[in-house]
C-alpha cells in the first residue's frame, strides 16, 4: 500500500484500520463543526451530543475505556496511534468518549466498590461528566503540597470540603469533580493530602466563572463552601493522594503529548498544502528556500518528537518508571506544536491569522501546552535533577 501524506510525516508505513476510521471521522465530522464546539454554550452542547451519537453508531465510542463498564478495552499501546488521530481536533477525545479515560482509570483502580458501581458505567457511556481539580489561585500549580483547600472529617465519617480551585477542565458542565484537599498535616507536607469525589449538585458547590485560555472556553473556577462528601467517596488511601495524582498525571501528560502530535501533523498538512498550492509572481511558495526551511524544520520536529512520546507510552504500558521519558515527551511535544503551527501561520501569511483555518486555535493550544500540565521549567528541572542524581550515585570515575 502506498504511504499517505500522514505516513510520510509519521515515518511509518501501514495503518491500523480503527485509527484510519477515527482519523476520517475527525476529519469529516468533527472538524467542520469546530466553530460551534469552540463557541461553548447550548449550541456547543447540542453539537457535541449529536457527534457523540454518530461516534457510537460508528462503533468508535470509548475505545480505550474498560470493557467491564461499556468501553472497548483497547490496550494503551494500540490506542496511542488512535489518540494521535483523535487529537487532530481538540474536541476529538470528548466527541469519541475517550476524554474520560483518566477519570475512569482512576476510579476503576482506586475507588471504593460502591463508587465504582455508581459512577463508572454512566461515565463511560457519556451520561456523567467528570473533572479533576488540583490547581488553586495564589498557589503554585507545580507544588500541590501547598494546596489550601481543606477537608474535615465529621463524626459519621463523612467529609466537608472548603476551598477554591481554578483551571478545572470542563468544570462548567461537570457532574462530579475529583478534588485534591488537605485532610491532615500542614501546608507543604506531602502526606496528609486526599482526593475526594465531589458531586457538583451538592450543597456549597458553586461554579464561579469560565476562565478563557487565550480566548477559548473550557477551563473553569469552582468554590467549595463546606461541601458534604460521603466517607466512601475518598479516592485511594486517605492522606496518600500524591501517589494517585502522580499516576494520573503521568498518563495524562503522555495522552496530551499524543494528541499534540496529531495537531502538529494537522498544522504541517495545512502548511504544505498552502506551499504547494499558492502561486505568486515569483512562482509557487514551495519553490522558495525559506518556505522549504520551514517545511524541513517542522518535519524534523515531528519526526524527532514522535519516538520520545511513544517511548513514554511503552514504559507506562509496561508498568515501569516513565517519569524522565514523560517529562521529555511533554516538553518536546508542546514545543513541537508551537513551532510547527507558527511555521504554518508564517507560510499562510495573513490568512493564517483569521478564522478560515484552524491555525489560530492550534497556535493557542501550542502556547498553552507549555504551561498546562506543568510548565516547561518544572519538567526540565525535574528531569535534569533525576539524571544528575544518577550520575552522582554512580560516581564520576576517571
Automatic annotation (TrEMBL):
Residues 17-127 form the Acyl-CoA dehydrogenase/oxidase N-terminal domain. Keywords: FAD, Flavoprotein, Oxidoreductase. The keyword Oxidoreductase applies. InterPro entries: Acyl-CoA_dehydrogenase (IPR050741), Acyl-CoA_Oxase/DH_mid-dom (IPR006091), Acyl-CoA_Oxase/DH_mid-dom_sf (IPR046373), AcylCo_DH-like_C (IPR036250), AcylCo_DH/oxidase_C (IPR009075), AcylCoA_DH/ox_N (IPR013786), AcylCoA_DH/ox_N_sf (IPR037069), AcylCoA_DH/oxidase_NM_dom_sf (IPR009100). Residues 1-44 are annotated as: Disordered. SUPFAM superfamilies: Acyl-CoA dehydrogenase C-terminal domain-like, Acyl-CoA dehydrogenase NM domain-like. Its cofactor is FAD. Residues 243-388 form the Acyl-CoA dehydrogenase/oxidase C-terminal domain. The keyword Oxidoreductase applies. Residues 132-226 form the Acyl-CoA oxidase/dehydrogenase middle domain. Residues 16-36 have a biased composition (Basic and acidic residues). Pfam families: Acyl-CoA_dh_1, Acyl-CoA_dh_M, Acyl-CoA_dh_N. Belongs to the acyl-CoA dehydrogenase family. Homodimer. This is Acyl-CoA dehydrogenase family protein. It comes from Streptomyces sanyensis.
